[in-house]
Amino acid sequence: MTAADRRLKRDALGVLGILFLVLSAQAPLTGIAGAVPLSVALGNGSGVPAAYVAAGAVVLLFSVGFVAMSRHVVDPGAFYTYIGRGLGRTAGTGAAAVALFAYCTIQAAMYGLYGATVAQLLDLHAGIDAPWWLWALLTMALVQFLGVAGIDTGARVLAVFVVAETSILLVFALVTLVRGGGPEGLGVAAAFSPRTALDGAPGVALMFAVASMFGFEATAVYGEEARAPERTVPRATYLSITLITAFFALTSWMVISAHGASHATDDAGRALENGDSSAFVFQPVTDRLGGWAGDLLPVLLATSLFAGILAFHNSANRYLFSLSRERRLPHALCALNRRGAPWAAGVVQTAIAVLLVVPFALTGRDPVVTLFSWFSGVAVLAIMLLYLLTSVSVVVFFRRNRLDRRLWNTAVAPALGALGIAGAIWLVLANLTTLIGGDRTTATWLALTIPTVWLLGAAAYLARPAGAYPRTMAPAPETPDAAVTSPTPETSEKDPP
Which of 48, 293, 344, 436 could be joined to 289 by an S-S link, Cβ 3.0–4.6 Å? Predict the structure, then answer.
């Protein structure tokens, strides 16, 4: 079997399977416990729920064009394939480098917070005093095992963790809602009125809200393994964005309501000063559900992080697989095991995780203050750039091929999404120092890594020897409802001018 003939396991995932993979990458409990206290304290206070609604609207606009593209191009390379089809292979290969960089850095960031969380839990409850990096390395081995076990096995494991972490927060939110909120009532106006939404520093809140959406694009990454991807991927994409927006808006609203809208900002600030920002979320949950919830939440935070780590491992190794299948990386990386899983790419992805995490362990850095904060900030910025390039690529692709003549889906919505994403990028850059919890110099160097990675990827493609990368990407189909699985060895496509 040639590299171009290799395919991931077909019909392995339905809408729910893809949905759990996406939701686990977004790590709902991690997002609520980590982002909401910062958004309330440093952003627009009680108006944080409105920021989630605004971010969901921007991402939903982006997804319209993203979904339109997914009906015609099915490939585990998703972002870079889409960008390559619209803006050319050079831009696409640069985007592939950025996508790998984003997924690997966000996974490494989560290893930092995960290792610190597990070390604290085991020290407190089992008396086991071991460094954070030991648990991170052991978990890398477990993630590698689950990765080669097949995507359907991984989806089942992730489903358990996602249901557990979202259930306790949803129960808290519904209990608080039914009881009429906290000491000041539900505070609908305080949460969603234009005045409070624009109060304080709304850009900071919007930045964290957009960051919480990180991972929904994985719906297209699993298209080749989905049943009827032309239907499954769009449904999973729209469903994941709608659910995660509603979840974050409702849960953050109820957390703020539980504190009281007029006290929420001060309470969040005190939690940050005490070095345990999660207490801003965990305390009201414990107050309403009982002490058992307070004991369970730290455990669920660890499983939430594990679920995210596994999800990003699966996304990253599929990028490596796709690049290898197109001969842009050594073709040995597209080797599949009997379960149809890209085991060789998974080994390389795990090795990258080790290389990213170990230097922080050797230098004795705080895994939360440095590894988690730095890498999560740069990953958010990198993925935002990919969203922007993909939106532009969608417009160019459909203007050139005329496969879909729906103006809203192929031009208006992607253009509006691009404008919203460009604004989000500006906000992330303006507040990157806050996002990474570091200084301006560190923030500048981290931001510069992204264009550097893109240029290195593009340069590697331009410097290739003649015939090194066969042009395997298929041209678009003639019918709007048909989907193309890239690559197909029989056809070729030239870069656009």
Answer: 293
C-beta separation of 111 from 362 below 8 A: no
For residue 258, the one-letter residue type is A
Determine the residue type at 317. N
Longest Cα separation, the chain = 70
By C-alpha distance, which of 194, 395, 424, 183 is closest to 287? 183
CB 320 within 8 A of CB 36: no
CB atoms within 10 A of CB 7: 15
Question: Which of 168, 161, 490, 151 is closest to 340 using CA atoms?
Answer: 151
Tell me which residue of 34, 29, 27 sits closest to 271, measured CA to CA. Answer: 34
Measured between alpha carbons, how far is 147 from 351 in angstroms, rounded to an integer?
13
Nearest residue to 387 (alpha-carbon basis) of 80, 97, 110: 80
Question: What is the signed CA dihedral for 70, 74, 79, 84, rounded to 10 degrees?
Answer: -100
pLDDT by residue for the chain (497 residues), tens digit each? 444 445 555 545 666 666 666 676 667 888 888 889 888 988 888 999 999 999 899 989 988 888 888 777 765 556 778 888 888 888 888 888 898 899 899 899 889 989 988 998 899 888 889 999 999 999 999 998 887 776 555 556 667 777 888 889 999 999 999 999 889 999 899 999 888 888 888 878 887 888 777 777 666 666 566 666 667 777 777 888 888 899 999 999 999 999 999 999 999 989 888 877 888 999 999 999 988 988 888 888 888 888 888 888 888 887 788 778 777 778 777 777 777 778 888 889 999 999 999 999 999 988 988 888 888 888 888 988 998 999 999 999 888 887 777 889 888 999 999 998 998 888 888 888 877 777 889 889 999 999 999 999 888 778 765 555 544 443 333 334 444 444 433 333 344 43
Residue 163 in 3-state DSSP? helix
| Secondary structure of residue 485 in the 3-state scheme | strand
**Residues 421 and 384 sit within 8 Å (Cβ to Cβ):** yes
Asked if residue 57 lies in contact with residue 466, where contact means CB atoms within 8 angstroms, the answer is no
- Tokens encoding 4: 């171009």
H helices within 88-186, ranges in order? 89-125, 132-148, 151-178
Burial 116-151 (b: 16+ CB within 10 A, else e): bbbbebeeeeeeeeeebbebbbebbeebbebbbbbb
> Torsion over CA of 121, 127, 130 and 132, rounded to 10 degrees?
10
Give the side-chain half-sphere CA count within 13 A for 321: 33
